[in-house]
Design a protein that fits this description.
With about 625 residues, this protein is mostly helical. The chain has helices at about 5-25, 65-75, 80-85, 95-105, 110-125, 130-140, 145-160, 170-175, 185-195, 200-210, 220-230, 235-250, 255-265, 275-280, 290-300, 305-315, 325-335, 340-350, 360-370, 375-385, 395-405, 410-420, 430-440, 445-455, 465-475, 480-490, 500-510, 515-525, 535-545, 550-565, 570-580, 585-600, 605-625. Among the domains are: about 20-185, no CATH class; about 540-628, no CATH class. Helices cover about 70% and strands about 0% of the residues. The termini are far apart.
Length: about 625
Amino acid sequence: MTRASLSALNQSLVNSANFYGNFITKLPFSSSSASSLQTIENSQCKPLLNPLYNLLPETRNPNKIVDLISFSLKQNNSQLTLLQNHVKPLIPHLGCHEITRVLLRFQSDCSSALTFFNWVKNDLGIKLSSHNYCYIVHILAWSKNFSLAMNLLCELIDFVKDCSNCEDLFESLVSCSKDCNFDPVVFDMLIKGYVRKGMVKEAIRTFTNVLEVGYLPSVITCNCLLNGLLRLNFIDQCWLVYEEMGRVGIRPNSYTFNILTNVFCKDGNVDKVNEFLERMEEEGFDPDLVTYNTLISSYCRKERLNDAFYLYRIMYRRGVVPDLVSYTALMNGLCKEGRVREAHQLFHRMVHRGLNPDIVSYNTLISGYCKEGRMQESKYLVHEMIGNGISPDSFTCRVLVEGYGKQGRLVSALNLVVELRRFGVSISSSIYDFLIVSLCREDRPFAAKNILGRISQDGYVPKPDIYNELIETFCRCNNVADALLVKAEMVRKRIKVNLVAYRALICSSCRIGKTHEAESLMEEMLKSDILPDPIICRVLIQSYCDQMDIDKAESILSFFAKKFRIFDTESYNVLVSTYTESGDMEKLMELQDRMMKLGFAPNSLTCKYVIHGLLKAKRLYKQKLLGS
């Protein structure tokens, strides 16, 4: 064959490939693939069977791509990377159909199948179809690689969920099972996958479909579904699934009944508990420790302690020994009713029966005593738990500090914190925040600042709100200079001062007659992009009016109205009242005109001030006449 004829043949093959690539109708891979995802970027989903391709070398023949990949996989998985470079011209012909053919050839060699699947997905970047995923899931499940199969199934769920034409994965799995070995456990895995993703409606639909095709999911799968429904408060659906289990003959286990016990408790229908327990026994299951603990906790939450203690006694009669959870739930119920002494007696009974209390048991009692204001007993329990090798946690510290705080014994709270730190207990920042804020609310800003300085050396970083609270307290106590020092520290640390702190500083400065400093603070606030409020407007105007600087007061009132659309009638009335005291009604009327043009509306108090001004002006005029 001449060079010219070879060139012509090559051109013919290229043209033929282009023709087939653009015009061959895509046929469905199977009868159910009408529902298959159509988001595959590689459009060659049907093999190209042009006989002229066979005249090309193997590495350039699209019909041979499946054989080449299969041969490479059988030799050595690591050769796939080399193969990628070797058959680079053929990669565009690797579509979903070819991928499926390779997977089916290696359905008995899951390692090679998975290597190929990952190579296509990760290295080649080809977007796989849902059927490709279904085949690899079937292959892995058949080979008992359930963990890998589950991971890919969850990936497929996400893949389908993100597509606009969301398909039924159950149908896809059924469709693909006709062509390869499969284990029905994939249907269990699909239900679990949906539950794991929080898609419980899809899980219920799949559960129903699985039953319709005659396969019974395992009781473990049913329990997983029940648990997912319970977690998302699908209470009615829980009972529907349970009834369906009974109808098709899926025998529940003790875990099933424990989930349903939780359903009862969450539904608030604890009155039917005894009936349910009898049903459990009829099914051959004795309520276990988990069942009793769930019910006792529910009764205690609903303040039905008599029923809770009835179950506690029944446990002993039936040979179920209460554990820490049982006792702690009962103690918590007693403490909520203010029966802390009885809770403590139950605590001693628990210890006497050989149970070692944990942090939750101690915290329950400590919290109960703190709520009753019995801080001495609480502190005794803290020492006892430390002596037993149990370190107090953040809840312990918080409830004790708050207990002292409610009694106004902040010094005792501080001493407790120091003592706990000496025992090596970590004190959370929220406790320090509580102490500082409590001292501020008792108008003890110097004590609060002292604590802040000490704990900052230990790495405590106060929140901006703590600094702002401190500024507000200093201002409330007329210690403006100290408040300004705190603000300066915030600026140095690049912590933003908020409106509340600026307002406190401005109000305090005006109160001590430093109006110009207050106005400077407002300008600083505006530069920080913090807008003023009517209170700031009011206090500035009142301060300038007190100094009889009426023009400045009017200027500020106009500025707030024009710039911030703040039309504070109270501020306006302060200005009117100041004018009336001077008795110059001409200026007062001119002010009225100017303010009303800006948008201020007089109220009854404004009218009262104006009338008062008119009467005063009349009186002054009469006095002037009499004097002359």
